[in-house]
Amino acid sequence: MNKLRVVIADDERPARSFLKNILDGFEDVETIGEAENGAEAVELIKQAKPDLALLDLQMPEVSGLEVVKLLSKSQLPLVAFVTAYDEFAVQAFELNAIDYLLKPIEKARLRETLNRAHDRLEQTDFRERQSANLQAAAETYEQISPKTFLERIPIRAKDEIVLLPVREVASIVADGELLHITTLQNEKYTINFRLKDIEIKLDSNKFVRLSRSALVNTDAIARVNPLPGGTYLIALKNKQEISSSRLQSRILRERLLKL
Fold it and tell me: CATH 3.40.50.2300: which residues of the chain?
């Protein structure tokens, strides 16, 4: 039996190390790369051409599901999602025959996933089947996930707490563990929070990633100016200007720049 060539994508280093240590204990597996976010995962998969990708479902900038969407069918390896318990994701994956692993990952459960991957690689139409199943799973997940979003952001300012309505936020820019929030009126606030944790609390139809460190309110966008290399300079109504990353520019074109 040929060794199964595997890549790991997870934004938490301990989670990647834990998973790699288990994989290293299997003689029929070779870990050929690691990515610490979805953007890196897309490039790694394109370059390394693994048999199997173990993708964390919730990653900053580009989620596990978005990684799959950004790959063509011919580039897509076998995929198993890794996630903390999410009843809606589990339901979507089980309904559509998508492999998933729950954190903390159990060695026996991972072994089952690897065995299925070996079996599926022997099927000539595995890419076609998986592509259809992944699309169906993404649609199911979107339909059944609860649509409750953050309406106000509590911000400590000296001896009081400001409750900032989300609709007044123009941009959120990360600087390490700090988030710098700028409103439509150019008021500025700073909170100690991670960008990926606040992103999942916001309506993805209203807020869009521009890069690994920036989120903007789509209603605050005034102009989108193309830059060399396929990226954009986003001008906001409050006169802020924020550049988009190359990968997020592709998502912007799909989400905002098509009729």
Answer: 4-144
Cβ contact 232:244 at 8 Å: yes
pLDDT of 1? 66
The mean pLDDT of the chain is 91
pTM of the model: 0.69
Tens of pLDDT along 12-70? 999 999 999 999 999 999 999 999 988 899 999 999 999 999 999 988 767 898 899 88
The CATH number fitting domain 152-255, selected from 2.40.50.1020, 3.40.640.10, 1.10.8.60, 1.10.260.40: 2.40.50.1020
We find that the CATH architecture of domain 4-144 is 3-Layer(aba) Sandwich (3.40)
Q: Which of helix, strand or coil describes residue 96?
A: coil
DSSP the chain: -PPEEEEEE-S-HHHHHHHHHHHHT-TTEEEEEEESSHHHHHHHHHHH--SEEEEESS-SSS-HHHHHHTS-TTT--EEEEEES--HHHHHHHHHTT-EEEESSPPHHHHHHHHHHHHHHHTSTTHHHHHHHHHHHHHHHHHHHS------EEEEEETTEEEEEEGGGEEEEEEETTEEEEEETT--EEEEE--HHHHHTTS-TTTEEEEETTEEEEGGGEEEEEE-TTS-EEEEETTS-EEEPPHHHHHHHHHHTS--
pLDDT at 72: 86
